[in-house]
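Could you help me review a protein record that somebody else here produced? What it holds is a sequence and that sequence's fold in token form. I need someone to confirm that the token line plausibly describes how this chain folds. Take the sequence as given and treat only the tokens as open to question. This is what I was given:
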Amino acid sequence: MEEVEEKLEAGQAKTTFRYLTRLLTPIFLESFILTFLADSDFCYIEEIDSASKDYCDEPNTQYSCVSGRKYYGNGLLQLFWNYNYGPAGNNIGFDGLNNPDIVVSDCTISLKTALW
């Protein structure tokens, strides 16, 4: 968000508007539009039918999958795969590989992963 504030202070409103549009459009599409299609009162912050998916890239040794964890789409801008949960957690400050569900249960982390 500091980047947005800096651009606004520098008089770059047009650039900032484009940045925010590129950020918020996928969040809207992935989280909110499905609410209307499903006639539900809630936004989707977990991938539909996620129990059948785990998105584990087993050959990836840098961000190895943790037994019993699934790396399906979570968050406002859904995060997938162990090779995304690992670096997102490192950059934002949570254990993405051991606790991928925190992206759903913690609103702050959900927002930070969308901005990441």
User: Anything to note?
Assistant: The first helix runs from residue 2 to 9.
